[in-house]
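Async update (no meeting this week)

Hi team, since we skipped the sync, here's where things stand on the single-chain job. The sequence we agreed to prioritize is pasted below, unchanged from the tracker. I ran it this morning and attached the output directly underneath so nobody has to dig for it. Comments welcome in thread, and please keep replies under the output.
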Amino acid sequence: MAVTTKKSPAKTTTAIPALVHDAQISSLVNLAARLTNKAARVRLGEMGAWPGQIPLLLWLLEEDGMIQKDLVAKSNMEQSTVAEHLDRMEQNDLIYRKRGDEDKRTYRIYLTKKAKAMSGDLLAGMESGARTFTQGIDKDDLVVFDRVIRKFIANLDGFVRKASAKSDD
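Output:
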């Protein structure tokens, strides 16, 4: 891989190779995700919830009594991850499980009174977090960022699905 340099009378600068630039983007996205997680832990720790549980709580706020399989699909998490989150949420008195009426093999997952009571704080915390994350960023830049990050996610999701399909063959 060749690194190009630009010479000017005053100084010589080195351009970043494309591969390194792409890796920097991945590193920056990874760093942003880690810091988002840490910030969420700070905000949610007082409530007894963890950042990974947020999507599950939100889906249950929207539709209480979902089955685990639906939570897996909607949250785009691995089944084992959802199971771990649900176990922890049950231990922290955020959810309870009730055997399904139609299918006795499945359990419906419901929010407890405690979880419902903290839902306002959860939503306010998410809104506050979003304001913190986007503070000082122009609205037009956020529109571009939204489009780019969604494309980034779609590209990665497509790659993972394709790789998973190959390994299933």
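Quick observations from my side:
Helices lie at 18-45, 54-62, 68-75, 79-91, 113-134, 139-168.
The chain has a mean pLDDT of 85.
Reply here if anything looks off.
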